[in-house]
Hints:
Elements: H1 22-33, E1 53-58, H2 65-80, H3 95-113, H4 122-135, E2 138-142, E3 157-161, H5 162-176, E4 185-190
Parallel strand pairs: 1-4
Antiparallel strand pairs: 2-3
Helix pairs in contact: 3-4
Amino acid sequence: MPSHKPKSSKPRGGVPKAKVGKLVGKAVEAAAKKPKKRIPAPPVTRNNDLPEFVLKIKRKPSYKKGPFDRKVRALQKLSDEGKLFKQANPLDKDPELTKAYRERVRQAIFAKYWPPGGTATAEGKAMAEKLLARLDRVDADHVWDPQLGGPDTVDNLRFLDSHTNQDMGSEIWQKIRNLPDGTPIRIEVIP
């Protein structure tokens, strides 16, 4: 019975596969894992010469009511004050800002409920574990979304349910992405 193995290690075309040394291979792997840095667009300001865009937001059944209501109230207030507009993308956001915000809250939980030196009570440890588990389910959300002209600063951050935050942010982006930069935006909540 004839063998079905190839007669040589050369692939079709007769050219052998290039060998990569360990050093080059590691460099290629590291480069592939390294995130590509996007160059942010220059920021813009609200352009009142452009027609106002009405951004309609409706609570999806998957959103938690309390977090959604807080987020929408904040956006409506900013909208009523005439502060919302489409910011140029990609945004100039510092991912370390939200990481540091989360870490400061984590450290505050430990400081209050599970202090070093073995002085924590069983109740304190239980409360710390409960709050840390809750912290894992929330995102550091920009109250005034940077895509709507908000600042990327610590005082603009609050925790929000992860699903609500990410889904709302994506939905807003889908609705405004084709607008000219600087377009004034008004929020309308659909019941």
